[in-house]
Specification:
alpha/beta, 19% strand, Rossmann fold, 402 residues, two-stranded antiparallel sheet, globular
């Protein structure tokens, strides 16, 4: 408990080495990007503790993956790891990257960009080229034994415009979803179906012939339409479709004084899906949701008022769809939980952020009634994060949640 719901000051690698094995259920973080800026105060004595200002991309990737390799030990076998990371251009500009819309020289001095600008000029990479940091990082993480489950695109519809005239404006960042073992905790997230998909599921289509479509599906190596409907709508239209890998999340405004602040709505998704609400106090295994479904009555009214017992029977007889066929998918009857048989009770899951910054991951974890552990090198950012989490920790102490 000495680590729980606290932000620990220091180098991430050093603090992680002090933590016990299998401590946390989920890691969600955004490490310092390569050669973007310095996040340390001007008077900080040991700049070598800081990530992001290495002389070569190879050194940056090594140091970053060293941190996650230690975090892997701290993560439970059922745990998940989510890393938000972006690329960097090799461009050096004496005017403070004005061509890439980073700002004036005064801005570069205030935000610690000057030192990063100088290092960019020494890279053995052609000027104006992307360095390829996300790809280098993902490959090295897999080489070290992590399993890469998804490459997620954070699409920023309201991204900062760029004044560069010889390339497209970058409006996305990467989120990599890693695990350390084949069996891990994951709660599927859903998003609404399109209206056309719902109407097709409920009423069928008038322009398709079952025999023709079934043959086409089989030739494409897919299931036939009947099986496809059963698979897609197996849990009803209440939940929606399984969430895809492009997440449109606006950056939004913030009063937080941190240059790398990201929105809570972005972090909400990984923590919901990758960190259990409760885990066993003894064995640490998570409770997992199980949906109990209930099949509603099916009445298929055709032009001739003929009634069929099932969707399959109707499709066989009709050899096609009509707009008058009504199909009701199953609905959620109840939600139960699958868990161990230790019988000692449960406690909230734990989210770790080894580069906690302004504390967004900690705030989201607490809002979801889960615990957090944060690590940060900059005392100014620690003060900001502590101020943000304070009201939620006070609620926790008076018993609003465990």
């Amino acid at each position: 408990m000495e680590y729980m719901n606290k932000i620990h000051k220091g180098n991430s690698l050093e603090i992680l080495r002090q933590m016990p094995d299998n401590l946390v259920d989920c890691i969600v973080t955004s490490p310092p990007y390569y050669l973007l800026r310095s996040y340390l105060p001007k008077d900080h004595k040991d700049k070598k503790l800081e990530l992001g200002l290495e002389e070569t991309p190879e050194e940056y990737i090594k140091r970053l993956c060293d941190v996650f390799e230690e975090a892997k030990r701290v993560l439970k076998p059922t745990g998940t790891l989510w890393v938000n990371i972006s690329d960097t251009y090799s461009t050096k500009s004496g005017s403070g990257f004005l061509n890439d819309n980073i700002g004036s020289m005064k801005h570069t001095l205030k935000t610690g960009i000057t030192e990063a600008n100088e290092l960019r000029g020494g890279l053995k990479i052609p000027s104006k080229s992307l360095i390829g940091i996300p790809f280098r990082f993902a490959l090295e993480m897999m080489r070290r034994g992590f399993i890469l489950r998804n490459s997620i695109i954070w699409f920023k519809k309201n991204c900062m415009p760029s004044s560069s005239k010889d390339r497209f404006t970058v409006d996305f960042e990467y989120i990599f979803f890693f695990v350390k073992s084949n069996k891990y905790y994951f709660e599927t997230q859903y998003e609404p179906y399109a209206d056309a998909t719902i109407n097709d599921a409920r009423f069928g289509r008038t322009d398709l012939n079952i025999t023709t479509v079934k043959k086409g599906y089989e030739e494409a190596g897919a299931q036939n339409p009947i099986e496809m409907k059963k698979r897609i709508f197996g849990k009803g239209l209440q939940l929606g479709r399984r969430k895809r890998c492009v997440w449109e999340v606006t950056t939004g405004g913030s009063k937080v004084e941190h240059y790398a602040y990201f929105p809570e709505s972005l972090i909400d998704i990984p923590i919901k899906s990758g960190c259990p609400e409760e885990v066993c106090k003894k064995c640490g295994l998570p409770k997992e949701k199980i949906y109990e479904m209930e099949q509603t009555s099916e009445v298929k009214n055709i032009d001739s008022n003929t009634k069929y017992k099932s969707f399959e029977e109707e499709a066989t007889v009709r050899q096609g769809f009509t707009s008058k066929i009504k199909w009701k998918p199953p609905v959620i009857k109840s939600i139960k939980y699958n868990h161990c048989n230790c019988g000692v009770g449960f406690k909230p899951g734990v989210v770790l952020d080894p580069f906690v910054g302004s504390g967004t991951s900690a705030v989201v974890a607490l809002k979801q009634k889960k615990n957090f552990i944060g690590i940060e090198l900059n005392q100014d950012f620690i003060d900001i994060a502590n101020k943000r989490v304070k009201p939620f920790l006070e609620q926790k102490r008076i018993g609003d949640f465990k």
